[in-house]
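Entry for the shared binder. Reason: the reviewer on the internal report wants the predicted structure included alongside the sequence.
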Amino acid sequence: MDTEKCRILLKTVDCGSLSTAAAELGYTPAGIGYIVDVVESELGFPVLYRGRTGVTLTSEGKRILPVIQELVESELRLEQRAFELRNLFSGEITIGTFSSIASQLMPQIIEDFQKEYPGITIHLVEGIEERLKELLSGKKVDFCICSYQKEDPFRFIPLRRDPMICVLPSEHPLAKQTAIQPEQLRNEPMIMPGYGRDPDVLAIFKRFCIEPRIKYSTVEYNSVFAMVERGLGLSIANELVTVGRVKNAVLLPFDPPQYIVEGILLRSLETASPITKKFMKFLERFFSDCGEEIRAEEISG
């Protein structure tokens, strides 16, 4: 089975149409259709339904797709391993992460990494936690850098700790305090990120047995902070996400202190490509040099 044809098939499935895949890969739609025909002929059954609105997987296609993905990934690992053995570090890596990490931490990390490995191309995909885990499960990213959640089925390697803080309108009575007790938020109108499902924020309410009074919800923190500054409610965020974003609101720590642990989230260390492993080792060294130390018990409970 020609893995290049398999890669084109996977791209077609991902795009949902022959014409979109053709445009992205530099083929004609007829050329993409021919390659799909060849793959289906070699397999002995149809993989795609083709309609006016695009293409979808047949029942057989759904069953064989994971095997095809593994075939393509195996060839990529073979190529990267060969490069590594020849000491020619080149290739690509795709990393999913929060916009705050992408803008505040990754530029320095990428700059330092490129000094050692200039031949490696790095792609960043930004999103909220829910979306990042979908990308990781779907093998659209090599790994993610996000916060630890006990229920995650993925492998987690801790890198850094980030304090959680309360964001208040400047005229709010609680803004005069030096710290916020979680209990004080029980009856306050809350503005929630992540469609109201941000696990790091919800974890604080759960920890202190508080049912949050969610008044507004949105996706990203830029709109959250804008609403807080308008006096529409309070919110909770990790410290990194507030850097350079909050101008006319008050940031207060929690008493007792609350924090999240951020790190590498990946499907499996054993099946990770050599380039992925190299970048992860670099990340561990980078944060170690920054003085970040995470105890094992911090991610065990």
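Summary line for the report: DSSP finds eleven helices and ten strands in the chain.
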